Amino acid sequence: MSESLPVATIRTQVTVPLRFPDGYTTTARLFTFDGLVDGREHLAFGLGDSTGAGGGKVPLVRPHSECLTGDVFGSQRCDCGPQLREAVQRIADVGGYLLYLRQEGRGIGLYAKLDAYALQDGGLDTYEANVALGHSEDERDYTVAAQMLAALGVGPISVLSNNPEKTEQLGRLGVTVTEQVPTGVFLSPANADYLAAKASRAARAADLPFVR
After folding, report:
1. Of these residues, 138, 172, 201, 204, which one is catalytic?
2. Which of 140, 193, 204, 212 is catalytic?
3. Looking at the whole model, is its pTM more than 0.70?
């Protein structure tokens, strides 16, 4: 059964040209919102020719959690920056949204994420480190993502993610997910252990019931 969502509304929309360090360029329609349950400044990037549910097309949507170190500074300890770059182009090619969610460090915040890095240097994996700091393995909540999609008037979606928990949460929140589309794997010597831990957790999460 889907959860009842508080109503969010579009606050502002503006067109912004984007350019990535590798030279890729595109144009996005940025949306801000009022009424999001956590009060944070999340953004939706409308990309491609068809960013709604019109014309019979199911938009491709990536809920992307903010990663300052990876998205902005190119940290090699995670795959967030390459996933963001990939997502923008793939969504622009077919039409859809990138939801940029202010959930740094899987929801624990920037400083705590860096504390977790220090524990990982001592041998813990990325999830064990969160728990050692008194947090859950993953504290992200996709209620705001469901609110944003409703405010944008989006119906069924394809989710661009390797994480089945995103799909499960969105389904429980009333979003109809027709397909989960995998992202690329961006392996480096610095993030190999991190990606192995993510793959292990995703395999466990795949056993969760998929709620459409």
Report:
1. 138
2. 140
3. yes
